[in-house]
Amino acid sequence: MQSLALIAPLIILLPSLGTIINFFWGPKLNERFSSLIGITASASTFVVWLVLFSYLNGNYYQPAIVDLPILDGWIRIPSVGLEIPWQQRIDTLSVTMMGFVTFVGTLIHIYASGYMHGDPRYARFFAYLNMFLAFMLILVSGNNLLMLFVGWEGVGLCSYLLVGFWFDKKHGVGLKNSNAARKAFVANRIGDFGMLMAIFLAFWTFGTLDLYKPTEVTNPHMMEALASGGGHGEEGAAPANGAAEEGGHGEEAPAGEEGAGDHTGSAAQLVSLASDLPIDQEGDHGEAAAEDHGESASEGHAGPVIAYTDNTHLTFSQLGIFAQAERLAQLGEGETLERGDGTTAGRMINFGAFELDIDTVITLITLFMLLGATGKSAQIPLFVWLPDAMAGPTPVSALIHAATMVTAGVYMMVRANSLFHLAEFSSLVVTIIGVLTALSAGYVAMGQFDIKKVLAYSTVSQLGFMVAAVGVGAYGAAMFHMITHAFFKALLFLGSGSVIHGVEHGHHHAHEHKHDDHGHDEHHAETFDPQDMRNMGGLRRKMPITYATYLIGTLALAGLYPFAGFWSKDEILADSWVAAIQDGKFAGFVALGLFVAAALTAFYMWRQIEMVFHGSPRTEAAEQASESVWSMTVPLVILAVLSLLGGFLNIPSGIGLFSFGLQGVFGEHTLSTWLEYSVVHLHVGAFQPLIAIVSLVLAVAAIILANRIYGSNKAINSEGLDPLEANPASRPIFALSNARLYWDEIYGRLFITPFNRTAAFLANVVDMAFLHDYFHDSVITKGFNGIGRLLSHPIDLGIIDGAVNGIGRLTRWISGGLRRTQAGYVRVYAVALLIGVVAVIVFMLLPVLQG
Amino acid sequence: MVPTEAYIILSMVLFAMGAMGVLLRRNAIVVFMSVELMLNSANIALVAFSRHWNQADGHLFTFFVITVAAAEVAVGLALIVAIFRTKQSINIDELHLMEG
After folding, report:
1. Least CB–CB distance from A819: residue in B23, B97, B100
2. Is the separation of the CB atoms in A132 and A399 below 8 Å?
3. A235 or A208, which is more confident?
4. A29-33, A196-200, A590-594 — which one is most confidently predicted on average?
5. A829 to chain B: nearest residue by CA?
6. Radius of gyration (Cα) for chain B, nearest Å?
7. What count of CB pairs under 8 Å joins A to B?
8. Cβ separation B99–A826 shorter than 8 A
9. What average pLDDT does the segment B11-30 reach?
């Protein structure tokens, strides 16, 4: 069972292989083979995920840290003690992330095989999608911040490549696409600065980047529960939940999963063990029976061997950053602790010129992490890239900009829950940012006409929900909403892609007819926008499968019972409410702003349904639209089922009849309990009937309101105006929303224009006028000429040539003298010889002569 | 017994006469004879020292010098004959073709 985790590196290698094949041989492959490679690579990661998932279930949810043997050590500089290993962490949180990344990713690969049909760079598209999967899986499975950052940058790169995938479209669209890609890249770079600063700070403070060390116990609560369960002997052990101690809601909840839906069960061995565990406080334990999960049940009898239930036996430097942070934060004033390598650490962290308290440092780290998250997860102030990123092909919007990449920021903050738990101020900032984003993006989504822009702003808004949930400490709720959101937002995006495809198809159809009739209609093709909802309407009958699944996605996003969004959104709202009322946290009160955002969600989604599907067709293209091919509709249906059932992953306790008794199948708090093995500060919330009813009433009221405004074929009036636009009373509200709160314009004024002006100044004045003309001409050119003249005349001609000529002249002069001695007379030579001999003899006799 | 110094003085005198002859005479034959005189003065000195130190080295060297002198005479006379044939003269002052 242990060795199962060792296949974890495959989850990165397989999509990388797909990338390599499609990238290098793609142009030679036909579409069918390219998509087969891409889909196989993606589906095989899902299979690897299944293995990892069963590994965790069979191994008491204990995390595994897997080294990649061939990359031994990764970064290792022994002389300074720097060691950053390439390790993947297989724990419940990362496996949860991997689950929906691989699953939704695979569906989107299948969808893309139909959607991208006929594209000239078909193979490259699949190469990018595979590469994206590989990087996303590095991001979620990395056991240190640097690996997380590698994935973080990698998905940013893939996002850039895919947003600008159609950079060569005609009529300036290609330029717009590549600008959108650049905008996404630049906005993300600003976030990456925060991420890098957080990493640097963490490394400086803790001396390591490992999230957890291999011997470390992640969650002592859970280990204690596991150990006490193991003491029962023949029955083995089961994890209890730490929530019993924290939130007072102790119920056993076997691990769940969020993936395929075919894994409806949970870890059965837990259930078989549960009868003698002292954790069944509310007596609903028997109902939590799960379907048998196969071989893991029999293994449960062995019972886990637990050596340690906490980390007290480990020295400071044997801990990962989170446990180190907690130890440091527990220190009193002036206290120090042994690092384990002979040095000590105290509360004050030395930064050379100044010292900071550990609390300040953690606050700084978390704030920088938040900046990183605002980039990747599209929060204020960096969310502006996401709506523009809709320029990419629709499967990309679904995969990257709705379901997976944008959750990276939330994942990172949930992963760092120990730090956010310690930094109350940062948590408050996180909440404020999340709520503001949820509200403003929800408001902006109301006034958009582009079908994908609405969904984009909706995504930003929902990510705001998740971020706000992290801020109030509802890490489980954030993850829950992330998963359900991945389902229904991927569904909505793929549905919108189907609609766009259908409308485009209809447009071509209509265009061909016209072509036959009139012979020319060129400019029409350029101006028609298949994404504009004003060109749609009445698609319900043309595209029945798309309509049905889109409706399910809408209701799930709007938070209607019993769709997935109801449960997850309600858990965030309930946790905020508990944080506000019971704990009196200011952040909780802030988070109550999410109720408004929830109502906005329902409103803009129903407006979209009315505009796109209801009423009567407003253009010929909509009239001629047709249903998409099966490879596009099948993923829609699968995602629709998940959007319907996904909420039951994490049924809150105390819900009674509300859940149809489905907790008998799914268990209660399944996801939260499962996540608690790796998310230390997760707490399990109870069902709040009041909150559920209020949010439900708000959502229904918003839908009814939207229906009254936009229903019965009033979605767009005869002048092509939105009813809110047409009504003078609401026109300013709509105009502000339609103009996206002037956010881009404000950025344009604040940053882009000054930036461009500075750039122009630097380019024209400093570079061109000063450097090129003045500096270049007068300093460089004249200087070089002057130095050249100096070197050529006085130095080269004078000194060097003079020396050489002088030597020549000297030689001639000496030889002129010497040649006279060569008289040619034998006698002269004989005299010279004689004189020489005498001289030699005298020289040799000198010592004798001197005495 | 005649002291060694006397032989050395004789040798010096003969050597000086030979050197003067080489330097001052113009007839190549005479110059040649002066060279022989110098060689033989050296032989006298060698033999004298040989007897003085009661060692045979000097005698041996003398025989060597006599052999070389004989060979030199052969070559030198041949050269003089050749020069005379071309120049019709053996006046060495007329032989200054090698001046620099």
Report:
1. B100
2. yes
3. A208
4. A196-200
5. B23
6. 17
7. 33
8. no
9. 92
Burial grade of A634 (CB within 10 A; 0-12, 13-18, 19 or more):
middle
Q: Can you read off the two tokens belonging to residue A393? A: 């092909």
Question: Which amino acid, one-letter code, is at A271?
Answer: V
Q: Which residue has the higher pLDDT, A146 or A656?
A: A146
B92 in contact with A, Cβ within 8 Å: yes
Restricting to B residues 15-34, those with a Cβ less than 8 Å away from any Cβ of A are 19, 22-24, 31
Do the Cβ atoms of B100 and A821 come within 8 Å? yes
Which one of B17, B22, B24 would you mutate to disrupt binding with A, by most A Cβ within 10 Å of its Cβ? B22
Distance of CA A22 to the CA centre of its chain: 24
- Burial classification of residue A358, based on how many CB atoms lie within 10 Å of its CB (0-12 exposed, 13-18 middle, 19 or more buried): buried
Cα–Cα distance for residue pair A468/A833, rounded to 1 Å: 111
Inter-chain residue contact A826 with B31, CB threshold 8 Å: yes
- Tell me the per-residue pLDDT of A466-511, one tens digit each, with 9 for 90 and over: 999 999 988 999 999 999 999 999 999 989 989 988 888 888 888 7
For a pLDDT cut of 90, what percent of chain A falls above it? 38
Task: Please state which of the ranges A571-580, A750-759, B90-99 shows the lowest mean pLDDT.
Answer: B90-99
Closest CA to A48 of A89, A13, A87: A13
CA dist., res. A508 & res. A502, Å (int)? 10
> A826 and B100 in contact by Cβ < 8 A?
no
Pick from A815, A827, A828, A837 the residue to mutate for testing the B interface (most B CBs within 10 Å): A827
Cα–Cα distance for residue pair A104/A734, rounded to 1 Å: 34
- Please provide residue A338's backbone torsions phi and psi, each rounded to the nearest 5 degrees: -75, 135
Residue A46, pLDDT above cutoff 90: yes
Residue A709 and residue A721 in contact, taking contact as beta carbons nearer than 8 Å: no
In tens, the pLDDT along B68-84 reads 999 999 999 999 999 89
Question: What pLDDT sits at residue A772?
Answer: 80
Report pLDDT for A266. Answer: 36
Query: Rounded mean pLDDT of chain A?
Result: 83
CB contact under 8 A, A824 and B19: no
How many other CB atoms are found less than 10 A from the CB of residue A745? 12
pLDDT at residue A307 tops 70: yes
Say if the Cβ atoms of A825 and B92 lie within 8 Å.
Answer: yes
Residue the block writes with tokens 């889909």: A39
Main-chain dihedrals φ then ψ at residue A728, nearest 5 degrees = -60, -30
Q: What domains does chain B contain, in order, with CATH numbers?
A: 4-94 (1.10.287.3510)
Taking the C-alpha atoms of residue A757 and residue A774, their distance in angstroms, rounded to an integer, is 21
Distance from CA of B26 to the nearest CA of A (A): 9
Q: What is the pLDDT of residue A760?
A: 92
pLDDT for A442 equals 93
pTM > 0.95: yes or no: no
- Any idea which residue has 């690996």 for tokens? A147
Q: What is the DSSP letter of A843?
A: H
CA angle A73, A78, A81 (to 5 degrees): 100
By the 8 A CB rule, do A726 and A547 touch? no
Residues of chain A contacting residue B95, judged by C-beta atoms under 8 Å apart: 824, 826
Q: Distance between CA B64 and CA B58 in Å, rounded?
A: 10
Q: Which residues partner with A545 through β-bridges?
A: none
C-alpha pair distances (Å), A208 with each of A64, A179, A320, A416, A697: 19, 38, 7, 15, 49
Chain A residue numbers with beta carbons less than 8 Å from the beta carbon of B23 are 827, 830-831, 834
* Range with lowest mean pLDDT among A303-307, A579-583, A600-604, A734-738: A303-307
d(CA B17, CA B26): 15
Q: Is the peptide bond before A847 cis (omega within 30 degrees of 0)?
A: no
Q: Mean pLDDT across chain B, nearest whole number?
A: 90
Contact A826 B95 (CB under 8 A): yes
The DSSP line for A28-45 is GS-HHHHHHHHHHHHHHH
